[in-house]
Amino acid sequence: MCYMVFLSTDSADDLTLRSSDLVRFEKPSADTQAPPPAMLKHEHRWFVGSRSGCSCGFRHLCHQSVDLGFDERQDWFPEDQEDIEATLRLYEILEDLLRRGHQVDLLDCWSRDENREYVSLAVSLSQVPAAHFRLFEGHAFTLTA
Among candidates 99, 108, 97, 123, which has minimal Cα distance to 40? Predict the structure, then answer.
């Protein structure tokens, strides 16, 4: 199984134009097993992939470690530098959408995990610095600037 990250927004921007080696956007398909529509609040929905194809190449906390919260890289918690760079790039894109007045939510889940209950969490990027941002397994973030 792989991490799968989904984004929904009220922005009609073509996010595929922001794809790079670190972050790529595509419309959800049968391969990406989009979560139930109720988990994504906005009309425009995207699968957010990383260099690995799935969403594993971002900073994540597994469900049991979510109490660690947002934080920068720690020596005792090894993280791949490319995962950090990919997450920083994703943060920049999210921040840009919010700064331009769009609504954004983000869901971090496992592939083929359609029946799971997700925790909703309001996240203000003004209170979470880019270097501290990471995704939480089984959580749906409602993002604000």
Answer: 108
Task: Walk along the chain (145 residues) in steps of 10 and give the mean pLDDT of each run.
Answer: 91 98 89 66 94 94 93 93 98 98 94 75 98 96 96
At residue 116, the pLDDT reads 73
Q: How far apart are CA 74 and CA 96, in angstroms?
A: 27
* Distance (Å) of CA 77 to CA 48, 59, 61, 73, 82: 24, 11, 11, 7, 15
Which of 79, 100, 82 lies closest to 90, judged by CA? 82
The rounded distance, in Å, linking the Cα atoms of 26 and 88 is 19
Are 55 and 110 spatial neighbours (Cβ–Cβ below 8 Å)?
no
Q: Is 101 left (phi over 0), alpha (psi -120 to 50) or beta?
A: left
HSE of 43, CA atoms in CB hemisphere, 13 A: 6
Which pLDDT does position 118 carry in this prediction? 87
- The neighbour count for residue 61, using CB atoms within 10 Å, is 20
pLDDT at 32: 64
Question: What is the predicted pLDDT for the residue at 46?
Answer: 94
Cα separation values, 132 from 10, 37, 46, 115, 117, Å: 25, 29, 23, 29, 25
